[in-house]
From TrEMBL:
It comes from Aquilegia coerulea (Rocky mountain columbine). The keyword Oxidoreductase applies. This is Cytochrome P450. Keywords: Heme, Iron, Membrane, Metal-binding, Monooxygenase, Oxidoreductase, Transmembrane, Transmembrane helix. GO terms for biological process: secondary metabolite biosynthetic process. Belongs to the cytochrome P450 family. PROSITE patterns: CYTOCHROME_P450 (PS00086). It is found in: Membrane. CDD domains: CYP71-like. Gene3D superfamilies: Cytochrome P450. One of its GO terms (cellular component) is membrane. InterPro entries: Cyt_P450, Cyt_P450_CS, Cyt_P450_E_grp-I, Cyt_P450_sf. Heme binds at residue 444. The chain crosses the membrane at residues 6-27.
């Protein structure tokens, strides 16, 4: 200590202060490189759940305007990172796509997906890669989608016939309901082929599917506060058990039928489920083989992914067309020029309808039916200096991204299809400012089918009919309120009166 005797008290204070500042700097530097994204403080137990309201994508967007494009919430016990701009989405969905390619486990996957055995809910890994490949090659390839063209066209013809009847009697129709039924029937036919006959016989399959979609879309407290799950406070477990048992009985019946005569079933039934079943029976390598539970889980998940999505997307486009009569007129003009008034639109015409396709893009930009996309990180990662530990739920806020004011400088809240003139911005997952089908490894596997259905149904509706709002309502009166569930739907029915406008009368 002798050697330090020359130091005065003043010197000692100076040295200690410098050391303290150096430590503080090092600590903050270290902490900064490992800090969590910013976000609002949560309450005990529920965390930030109370801040999400009835429309979480909108509430999260508002919060992100305060806390930034990468924000942390704690919903119940679950840490969630919310991504809200195209630049941030690029960091997650392009740079780190593999790390966030897993899915959170929710109660829905226990009941509807036989414990996350389906393509939509299963964790990222060899099983998901295998089933995704099988779906892409055998179920949802362009040639397979083409092979179901007569089914789609037949169902659309039924819809048009039904609407012509309504037009004759000047009836007001709930167009969303009619669209929903037509697309539902198309989807059942594609998935179950001739097995569909059992749906109308003894099994109450359709109401069960509707109930399970409702349950899957409801906010389930047990997903975020697992300890309350055993008390089943919302009665969801009880309802899930009932519907999943009934749906399982139906699927077992189909599998029995198949097992009794596999070759005949493949030749005559021809639905997605027969392809899945043939993969169960085939002499494929173990890797490509599906077991019975996997067949059932995938059939139900593909049904759930496809059944409402296209119809709801058409309903939103249709709502925008009713609010913007000049856009409706322009679409009709294009259809008249390209197709004429003496024949119906066919699928092969769809690529020629440039303006209609811009209208669909614009509607999907402001009304992405999945306002939020959920992923889960499978490794620790650091993005923009934010440390995000393995197991964090990642919430890609498509609603916020698709309306980002930097990416969409001209009135991002407005419906304006002309914004796509002379741009090649596309919604297939490469352009981060427009993500209605998601992006990266887990992007929508049924995009081509969904898009084809939306284009065909919409083109037919606008080509065949003029549309009038009832009770003297004006376009500005069309209610655009949303309800958030498994998908974002209209809050009120869309009521309209059709008038037939074509010269063909034997469609
Ligand atoms: C307009 C209609 C549709 C829209 C807007 C839509 C949108 C989406 C979105 C946003 C995702 C999540 C993507 C992600 O996490 O990155 C998704 C996933 C998926 N969709 Fe679609 N979808 C539509 C139609 C369909 C149809 C008709 C089918 C099949 C019949 C289908 C099958 C799937 C499947 C299997 C997945 C899960 C993919 C995976 O996790 O690997 N979708 N869809």
């Amino acid at each position: 200590m002798e050697s330090f005797a020359y130091l005065t008290t003043f010197n000692w204070v100076g040295i200690l202060l410098s050391l303290f500042l150096a430590f503080a700097w090092l600590w903050s530097k270290n902490n900064n490189s490992k800090s969590s994204p910013p976000g609002p403080l949560g309450l005990p137990i529920i965390g930030t759940l109370h801040l999400l309201g009835d429309l979480p994508p909108r509430a999260m967007r508002k919060l992100s305007q305060k806390y930034g494009p990468i924000m942390k919430l704690r919903i119940g016990r679950v840490p969630v990172v919310v991504v809200s701009t195209p630049e941030a989405a690029e960091l997650f969905l392009k740079t780190n796509d593999k790390i966030i390619s897993s899915k959170p486990t929710a109660q829905v996957s226990k009941y509807m997906s036989y414990g996350s055995k389906g393509i939509v809910s299963t964790e990222y890994g060899p099983y998901w890669r295998n089933i995704r490949k099988l779906c892409t090659v055998h179920l949802l390839s362009v040639s397979k989608i083409d092979s179901f063209r007569p089914t789609r066209e037949e169902e659309v013809r039924h819809l048009i016939k039904d609407l012509r009847e309504a037009a004759k009697s000047r009836e007001v129709v709930d167009i969303g309901k009619k669209l929903g039924l037509a697309v539902e029937e198309m989807t059942y036919r594609m998935i179950f082929g001739d097995h569909r006959k059992h749906i109308t016989e003894s099994f109450k399959f359709k109401p069960c599917v509707q109930e399970s979609l409702k349950l899957a879309g409801a906010f389930n407290f047990a997903d975020f506060l697992p300890f309350i799950g055993i008390f089943d406070p919302q009665g969801m477990t009880r309802r899930w058990k009932i519907v999943s048992k009934l749906m399982d009985e139906f699927l077992e019946k189909i599998i029995d039928e198949y097992e009794q005569n596999p070759t005949e079933q493949e030749e005559h039934h021809g639905g997605f489920i027969d392809i899945l079943l043939s993969l169960m029976k085939s002499n494929n390598t173990q890797e490509n083989k599906l077991d019975k539970t996997e067949v059932k889980a995938n059939a139900l998940e593909i049904l759930a992914a496809g059944i409402d999505t296209s119809a709801i997307s058409v309903e939103w486009v249709f709502s925008e067309l009713l609010r913007h009569p000049q856009v409706m007129e322009k679409v009709q003009e294009e259809l008249t020029n390209v197709i004429g008034l003496d024949q119906l639109v066919e699928e092969t015409d769809l690529a020629k309808l440039n303006y209609l396709n811009m209208v669909i893009k614009e509607s999907m930009r402001i009304h992405p039916i999945n306002g939020i996309m959920w992923r889960k990180s499978i490794e620790d990662m650091t993005i923009n200096n934010f440390y995000i530990p393995k197991g964090t739920w990642i919430c890609i806020n498509i609603h916020a991204i698709n309306r980002d004011p930097v990416a969409w400088p001209e009135n991002p809240e407005e419906f304006h299809p002309e914004r796509f003139v002379n741009t090649d911005i596309d919604f297939r997952g490469h352009d981060m400012q427009l993500l209605p089908f998601g992006s990266g490894r887990r992007k929508c596997a049924g995009m081509e089918l969904g898009l084809r259905t939306v284009q065909l149904v919409l083109a037919q509706l606008v080509h065949c009919f003029n549309w009038e709002l009832p009770d003297g309502l004006s376009p500005a009166d069309v209610d655009m309120k949303e309800v958030y569930g498994l998908t974002i739907t209209r809050a009120t029915p869309l009521l309209v009166r059709p008038t037939y406008r074509l010269r063909v009368h034997n469609s």
